Amino acid sequence: MLAPRAYLSSFLPFEGLNLTPAAQDNLINETARFVRDEVMLAPFHLRAGIVVFALLFNLWLAIARLGGLSTVTAATRWEKFGAPMRSLTRLIRSLALLYFCEHPAVLEKQGVLTAKRRQEIFRARHSSREAA
Amino acid sequence: MTAPHRIFGSLATDCEILIIGSGAGGATLAHALTAAGRDVLMLEEGPYIAAEDAPPSVPEAFKKMWRGGGLTVALGNPPVAYAEGRCVGGGTEINSAIMQRTPDDLLDQWARRYAIRDYGPAPLAPYYEQAEKLINASLTEPPLGRASDLLREGGEKLGWEVTPLKRAQKNCVGTNLCAAACPTGGKQSMTAALLPVALANGLRLIAECRVTKLGFKGNKIAKVNATARDAEGRSHRVTIRPRQVFVCAGAIHTPALLMRSGVRENIGRTLRLHPTAKITARFSDKIDAENARLPLYAITEFMPDQRLGGSVFLPGFFGMALAEDWKRRAHLWEMRENTAIYYAMARAGTVGSVQPLPGMTEPLVRYQCAPEDLANLQQGLGRLAEAMFAAGAVELYPSIAGHEGWRSLDEVRRDRAHSLSPSALNLMTIHMFSSCPSGERREICATDSYGRVHGFANLFVADASQIPEAPGVNPQLTIMALALRNAEMFLSQTTQERARAAS
């Protein structure tokens, strides 16, 4: 797993969304899949580096958990190892939040129009303007 | 627009003019050459996405239309994330379609420094006018939205020049979804404006067809090898025997293709870009940036060295901005309606490089931002922060890892006293150019004044890579103007050649 589930659930802002545990679980899985798919689209020379550092990050989280550290503390210590480590966690956070914040389930819970609905509204508005 | 041709098996064909790439340069060229009755074939690596099939969210657009899923980086300290369109229409499908001419002073300087013929504000003016007409570059009727107004108010309170920005638009209804492909066709991208006309005039366009190598016989291209994908995703070999070739694959992939094909003189070693840093600004009043148009003012007081403006604000982009330092910024998630994102863009002098990697699709892009360019950017960020506070911002978060944010101008000034740590800066750009500069000085230029690659009879470049240095403005209009100029010279020369041959 390129984006460890434990890490994703440590920062994805579920508070206030009132999602069921199953829906929350599902969203974490989808987010992890999106991060993986995105990394697979990256140029090979970047992808190779990301995969290596992601494996190390997973290993570090497992060791830290054995040592009794929380995921948040372990991730904070990981970032102190240097800029490449920070870049990896930032990349995971960026992609995860990109996906999460645009997810229809999240937008609906927030009472915000989904992008699909926005498209429909604007297409109708554009058509009437063209007709006028 | 009618859908491009698809490949169903191996293909070997010939054509008078082959255009590689369908972005601002390639599409403008195709429009001009087909209008003159020429036989033009265009190959585009990415897919064709019609407005009615526009991805319904930014994450989906990243996958379908952005090169490398949006994960493309120029390596250096700090690295610079760059974005490129990989679809029919290229970058024009995912940009904000902001149109600005390159400042006159810069055009004059480049004309002298690179010995570019018939270049400068006056000689280029007709091409700029033509380009503006083609994509209906025009100002947007107010109201432009609170995010735009705040930038204007901030700049004006400080007595700085603030300029409304023209966009390529026609009946645009302000979807704010430009980065995910315009769902209405209101944005006059290449698939909305120029390619439909070129197709009607006889352009043959093959999408999902990647050119792998140019084959030479002496100083002429004899054949072009490509790989195309059919509807089922199977690969097929494509061989084209063109009489003339225009490479319009952008500032990264034009030099990569030329270098892969053995053309190396002054190519790929002078990549320039506009390093851009962002500020997430929270105001006490509601802004509702995601339901407004993208910000359409820029603070132009410090141009060409710095331009300050507003970014597209969508939930996903907002999430990415918070990801810089989630611990300190997560609280903004609850205040989305009061938040907007702005940028400081620097006209940098740093020169980077593009290097194709054997067996790889994507080249290695390197860009080590020079200290003076980082200082320029830091100054720009400080000025942007000043404008934001003047507009009433409560707190500001620059795209600097670990930064605690600014809550007053004093804090901004305190930071200005120290230089930025490069490794903490998160930079991005969507403006890359100059990797194949034009001009008659053969010791520093890749092409002549009209895009013909020095030393080759039938090989041309027409895209951002021929802009000799960073223009300090969005480059699309300049790319289009130069493509029109290249096309005009090409048509004039080849018409004369034809007449000579006939006589």
* End-to-end Cα distance of chain A: 53 Å
* Form type of chain B: globular
Total beta strand runs of chain B: 23
Instruction: Flag low-confidence runs of chain A.
Output: none
Class from secondary-structure proportions of chain A: mainly alpha
Beta-strand percentage of chain A?
Answer: under 5%
**What's the number of extended β-strand segments of chain A?**
0
Our estimate of the beta-strand percent of chain B is 15-25%
Tally of helical runs of chain A: 7
What's the SSE blueprint?
The complex is a heterodimer of chains A (132) and B (503).
Chain A: H1 5-11, H2 21-41, H3 44-66, H4 71-79, H5 83-101, H6 104-109, H7 115-131
Chain B: E1 11-20, H1 24-35, E2 40-43, H2 58-65, E3 72-74, E4 80-82, E5 98-99, H3 104-113, H4 121-134, E6 137-138, H5 146-157, E7 162-164, E8 166-168, H6 195-200, E9 204-206, E10 209-217, E11 220-229, E12 235-247, H7 250-260, E13 272-273, E14 276-283, E15 297-299, E16 306-310, H8 315-323, H9 326-329, E17 339-346, E18 353-355, E19 364-366, H10 371-390, E20 393-398, H11 409-416, E21 427-429, E22 432-433, E23 459-461, H12 476-502
Parallel strand pairs in B: 1-2, 1-12, 2-9, 4-21, 12-23
Antiparallel strand pairs in B: 3-4, 5-8, 6-8, 7-15, 10-11, 11-12, 13-22, 14-17, 14-20, 15-16, 16-17, 18-19
Can you tell me about this structure?
The complex is a heterodimer of chains A (132) and B (503). Chain A has helices at 5-11, 21-41, 44-66, 71-79, 83-101, 104-109, 115-131. Chain A has 132 residues and is an all-alpha fold. Chain A has one domain. In chain A, helix 2 (21-41) packs across helix 5 and helix 3 (44-66) crosses helix 4 (71-79). Chain A is elongated. The mean pLDDT of chain B is 95. By secondary structure, chain B is an alpha+beta fold. In chain B, helix 1 runs parallel beside helix 12 and helix 10 (371-390) runs antiparallel to helix 11. In chain B, strands 1, 2, 9, 10, 11, 12 and 23 form a 7-stranded mixed β-sheet that branches. In chain B, strands 7-15-16-17-14-20 form a 6-stranded antiparallel β-sheet, sandwiched between helices. In chain B, strands 3-4-21 form a 3-stranded mixed β-sheet, with no helix packed on it. The two termini of chain B are 40 Å apart. The interface between A and B is large, with 42 and 49 residues.
